[in-house]
What we know:
The protein has 13 helices and 12 strands. By secondary structure, the protein is of the alpha/beta class. The chain folds into 2 domains: 27-143 and 268-298, 3-Layer(aba) Sandwich (Rossmann fold), CATH 3.40.50.2300; 147-267 and 301-328, 3-Layer(aba) Sandwich (Rossmann fold), CATH 3.40.50. It has a 7-stranded mixed beta sheet, sandwiched between helices. Helix 2 packs across helix 11, helix 3 crosses helix 4 (100-109) and helix 7 (204-214) runs parallel beside helix 9 (235-244). The longest helix is centred in the first third of the chain and has 22 residues, at 3-24. The N and C termini lie far apart (69 Å).
Amino acid sequence: MRRRDLLALIGVAGLWPAASAAQQAGPTRRIGVLLSATEGDPSTLRLVAAFEQGLQERGWTVGRTVRIDYRWGASDAERRRRSAEELVELAPDVVLATAGSIVDAFQLVSRTVPIVFVLTVDPVGGGWVSSLAHPGGNATGFSAGEFSRNGKLLELLKEFAPGLTRVAVLRDPAVPAGSGGFAAIQTVAPSFGVQLTPVGVRDAGEIARAIGEFATAANGGLVVVGPPSSLANHFGLIVELAAKYRLPAIYPIRPFATAGGLMFYGPDTADQFHRAAEYVDRILKGEKPGDLPVQQPTKFELVINLKTARALGVTVPSPLLARASEAIE
């Protein structure tokens, strides 16, 4: 190689690190995340990790090419509102909403900040999107599935305890996830020979009184419908009451099972957070949320807490245990 060509090659090579650094040193993008859980909750940290992993797989480095601002404890309406305002004031490129009530909070603050939601029920009925295929506004994401899925909760509980004839359904009647979920269970209850008792979840006193009164008669169980944002402050209480009155119970979100609840059935929450990173990535790269169709769950989990089953003095039926994605010892 001629000396002139060698010097030219060395000169170009010397520019590579600088060029690469310049490419990576573009403007840091900003994501806001509002979570319906208390700060440090282990189950939610698992979801946060799945989301950040999804971003990393798409070439983003948290703290360098993208900054994520988290806000916690959005189970309280006033706190949701304040947190949504705080995040929007930070001028994020996109926000992640972890419940339908959080989507509402963001949209009250801004109709332009792109929103990706997860684990929401009935996004069309909630007014967040025009249709699942063509959202058309500033929000899109991943739904928790149709109301009819709640009928599966009763089916699984009846399979666990065939002798059940009475079931208390804990729900928030003021939101679609609660009212629609209860209606779906009402539809299938006659086929299982079960009488339903609706229970509100507005405050701890209401929950404790209603479950205490329900438990005075035999052959009872609990189905918790939700939504998660209405239940976030009551995980421990509901699990404690179910154990106190020896009521078999099934829940719609995983943290109940990890906190000692008997069974959880629902969408794979970590999978939804991981998939949400794809939509966040696409929005950061220029796509509009209104052009990205709302996606339905593709993975479901059945988690059974065997320790809780033993405390109830019940052996989990083998066919049910065989279908479980996880058994907690």
